[in-house]
Design brief:
Residues 400-477 form the UBX domain. The protein has 481 residues and is of the alpha/beta class. It has helices at 2-13, 18-27, 32-37, 110-121, 173-176, 188-196, 217-226, 229-238, 249-263, 265-273, 304-391, 427-436, and strands at residues 88-95, 98-105, 129-131, 152-158, 205-211, 239-245, 281-287, 292-299, 404-410, 416-422, 444-448, 472-479. The chain is built from twelve helices and twelve strands. Residues 41-83 and 165-174 have low confidence and may be disordered.
Length: 481
C-alpha cells in the first residue's frame, strides 16, 4: 500500500526525489490527498478524492487505469510540473522605539536582511549589529536555511557607534530636573539580553518602567521617586532600566505582545489588571535558568522609602540567586578547566609519545643505514681482498733454484704472516699479499725492525732485492694515523 502511494505521489507531483516524496508522506501521516494538496494547488483549493468517481459510460468490469491521470484530476494547475515554493520566514526586528516586520525566503542571507533594514531604519550596514539569533552571532554571508530557523523570528538591532538622538528619560526628566535614571536604549529583548545573559557575576535585575501621561500619579512618581538621588544611584548600580510609554493604546498593545513573548501570559494579564490611575508601574524582573520571573510590581502610589525598600528586597532575592549561579558557574568552569587541562595533558602525552616514537624510528633507521653501509663496505673490502688474493703469483718453491726471499710479517694482533717471494718480485706484490690478509695499503704501513724503515714509502715498482728484503726479513704492520 505504501509503495503504491509513493508511486502515485511521484506521478502526480512531478517530484523525482524519492526521499523527498517519502518525507512529505510521513509529514502527512501517509495521507496521500493531504500530501498532494501540500505540493500541487488545485483549482478549488482541495483535492477531493484520491480516486476519481466512476464514469457512467464505463463498464463495471473495466479495470482501473494505472496512469497518473486516472489518479490525479487534470486541471490547468496540474497539467505541468509545479515547482515547489521556497519556504518563507517571518522576522520582527526591533530598534530602539521602532519595529520592522520582514518576510524573506530561507535562501536569503543575513547581509540581505541588513540591507533591507538599512533602507527601513536609515542605519548603515557597517554600523549595524543584528542580534537575537538562537545560534549566536552569524556573519553577513550566512544563508538563513543553514540556521534552521522557525517560521517566526524576533531580532533586534544594536548600534553602539551611533548615539541616540535623545537620552531623556520617558518620564519627561526635562520637566523634573537633570537627575533621573539612564534608560536602556533598545528593545525589551535587547534589554533582557543585557541584564540576564553573560557571566553570572555580570548579570543584573531588569527594571521595566511603564509610564502613562493620563495618570495623576505620573507627575509625583517621576519628580519625587524616579528623580531622587538615592533611587537613581541604586537603579544605576544594580539594574538595567528600560522604559515604555503606554499612554496610547497602540503602544500598550505592543508592550503586552512583547511581555507575552518574553515573560509569559501571567505577566501580561497582571499588567492588564492595572487601571490608568494606578500607573506608573515599575516591574522588577529576574532572569532564571528556565524562565524570567517578575519579583515585584511597584505602583505609582508609593514613597521614596517604600520604593527603596522594595528595590532592596528584590536585590536581596537576586543576590541570593546570583550567588548560587556564580557557584554553579565557577564549579562548571572548574570542571571544564580540569577537563581542558586533562585534554591538554593527554594531547601533550600523545605528542611526546609521537616524538619519542619518531626519534626512535629515526635512530633505528640511522642504525640500519649505518649497518647497511658497514656491510657494503665489508663486502667491498672482501671483494677487493679476494681479487688481490687471486691475483697473487704462486708462492715459489725453496728448491726452485731462483733467488727467494723469506718474509715474516707481524700483525697488530701479534700473529705472524709468513710467505716466500721471488727476489725479483715487485714491492706491490708484497703490499697486495698483506692487503689480501685484511691489511690494506691505505690503512696500514709496513716497517722493518732494525734499522726502522717504512717500506710503504718506497716505490711499489722496485724489487725485493732493491728494497734489501733478501734473503729474509722480519717486518711488522702498524696502523696509519
Amino acid at each position: 500500500m505504501m509503495r503504491a502511494d509513493l508511486t502515485k505521489h511521484l506521478a502526480c507531483t512531478g517530484i523525482d526525489n524519492i526521499a523527498e516524496a517519502i518525507t512529505l508522506l510521513e509529514l502527512n501521516n501517509w495521507d496521500l490527498v493531504a500530501a498532494i494538496n501540500g505540493v500541487i494547488p488545485q483549482e478549488n483549493g482541495i483535492l477531493q478524492s484520491a480516486v476519481p468517481p466512476p464514469s457512467s459510460s464505463s463498464s463495471s468490469s473495466s479495470p482501473p487505469s494505472s496512469s497518473a491521470s486516472a489518479f490525479c484530476p487534470i486541471t490547468p494547475s496540474s497539467r505541468h510540473i509545479v515547482e515547489r515554493q521556497p519556504r518563507l520566514l517571518n522576522f520582527r526586528v526591533e530598534y530602539r522605539q521602532r519595529s520592522v516586520e520582514l518576510v524573506l525566503e530561507e535562501g536569503n542571507t543575513v547581509g540581505e536582511i541588513k540591507q533591507i533594514l538599512e533602507t527601513e531604519l536609515g542605519v548603515p550596514v557597517s554600523k549595524m549589529q543584528l542580534k537575537g539569533w538562537k545560534s549566536g552571532d552569524v556573519s553577513d554571508s550566512t544563508v538563513l536555511r543553514s540556521l534552521h530557523l522557525p517560521k517566526n523570528n524576533s531580532l533586534y538591532v544594536l548600534t553602539p557607534d551611533i548615539a541616540p538622538t535623545s537620552r531623556v528619560c520617558v518620564c519627561a526628566s526635562c520637566r523634573y530636573g537633570e537627575t533621573h535614571p539612564m534608560f536602556f536604549i533598545g528593545s525589551l529583548e535587547a534589554a533582557s539580553q543585557e541584564a540576564f545573559h553573560g557571566k553570572a557575576r555580570d548579570r543584573k535585575l531588569l527594571a521595566i518602567y511603564l509610564h502613562n501621561d493620563d495618570s495623576v500619579l505620573s507627575n509625583v512618581f517621576c519628580s519625587q521617586m524616579m528623580c531622587a538621588d538615592s533611587i537613581v544611584s541604586y537603579l544605576s548600580q544594580n539594574f538595567i532600566t528600560w522604559a515604555w510609554d503606554v499612554t496610547k493604546e497602540a503602544n500598550k498593545s505592543r508592550l503586552l505582545t512583547m511581555c507575552t513573548r518574553h515573560f509569559g501570559s501571567v505577566v501580561t494579564q497582571t499588567i492588564r489588571t492595572y487601571k490608568t490611575d494606578q500607573f506608573p508601574l515599575l516591574l522588577i524582573v529576574m532572569g532564571k535558568r528556565t524562565s524570567n520571573e517578575v519579583l515585584n510590581v511597584i505602583q505609582g502610589n508609593t514613597t521614596v522609602d517604600e520604593l527603596m525598600m522594595r528595590l532592596m528586597g528584590a536585590m536581596e532575592i537576586f543576590t541570593a540567586q546570583q550567588q548560587e549561579d556564580i557557584k554553579d558557574e565557577d564549579e562548571r568552569e572548574a570542571r571544564e578547566m580540569v577537563k581542558r587541562e586533562q585534554d591538554e595533558a593527554y594531547r601533550l602525552s600523545l605528542e611526546a609519545d609521537r616524538k619519542k616514537r619518531e626519534a626512535q624510528e629515526r635512530e633505528e633507521a640511522e642504525q640500519f643505514r649505518l649497518e647497511q653501509m658497514r656491510k657494503e663496505q665489508e663486502e667491498e673490502k672482501e671483494a677487493i681482498r679476494l681479487s688481490l688474493e687471486q691475483a697473487l703469483p704462486p708462492e715459489p718453491d725453496e728448491e726452485s733454484g731462483e733467488q727467494i726471499s723469506k718474509l715474516r710479517i707481524r700483525t697488530p694482533s701479534g700473529e705472524f704472516l709468513e710467505r716466500r717471494f721471488l727476489g725479483s718480485c715487485k714491492l706491490q706484490v708484497l703490499f697486495d699479499f698483506v692487503a689480501s690478509k685484511g691489511y690494506p695499503f691505505e690503512e696500514f704501513k709496513l716497517l722493518t725492525t732494525f734499522p726502522r724503515r717504512n717500506i710503504t714509502q718506497l716505490d711499489p715498482g722496485s724489487t725485493l732485492l732493491e728494497a734489501k728484503l733478501f734473503p729474509q726479513e722480519t717486518l711488522f704492520l702498524e696502523a696509519k694515523e
